[in-house]
Specification:
The structure is a single chain. The protein is mainly alpha-helical and 129 residues long. The chain has one domain: Arc Repressor Mutant, subunit A (Orthogonal Bundle). Helix content is 55%, strand content 11%. A three-stranded antiparallel beta sheet has the order 1-3-2.
């Protein structure tokens, strides 16, 4: 019996398990729900699993910087609670359009992955017979 060397046979890369590629659409979605500041976005993205933990702020602020430069979000300063002012981010109209584009991309990926899972389940059923 031959064993399969997963590294050379297409083992899923470590990054395939992470959802941090979806930080941008996650930020867009959360800002569509309500304007908020960067730290809160990090907490909420971690809660839905798009980042490893709420301390992974580099990904959040990189996405905010990119989206801001593209005009997809706006930022305003609000007084902080006993500290310096905080930036509060909100979705701009072009951000709503980008969110819709991401929805379409994610929906297609879900469809492709669902077909994969259906075929896998069918394969398992055949092997059980």
């Amino acid at each position: 019996m031959t064993t399969c060397d997963h590294a050379s046979a297409g083992q899923p890369p470590v990054g395939a398990r992470r959802l941090n590629r979806f930080v941008v659409p996650g930020v867009l979605l959360l800002l569509a729900e309500e304007p908020t500041h960067g730290y809160e976005l990090g907490s909420r993205l971690a809660a839905v699993g798009f980042i490893e933990n709420e301390n992974d702020t580099a990904l959040v602020y990189r996405a905010l910087g990119t989206l801001s430069a593209q005009g997809c979000i706006t930022a305003s300063e609000e007084p902080g609670e006993g500290g310096p002012p905080r930036k509060v981010y909100a979705l701009a109209p072009s951000g709503r359009e980008l969110l819709e584009e991401w929805r379409a991309v994610i929906e297609e990926r879900v469809n492709v992955l669902s077909r994969f899972l259906e075929r896998y389940v069918a394969l398992e059923s055949e092997e059980d017979d």
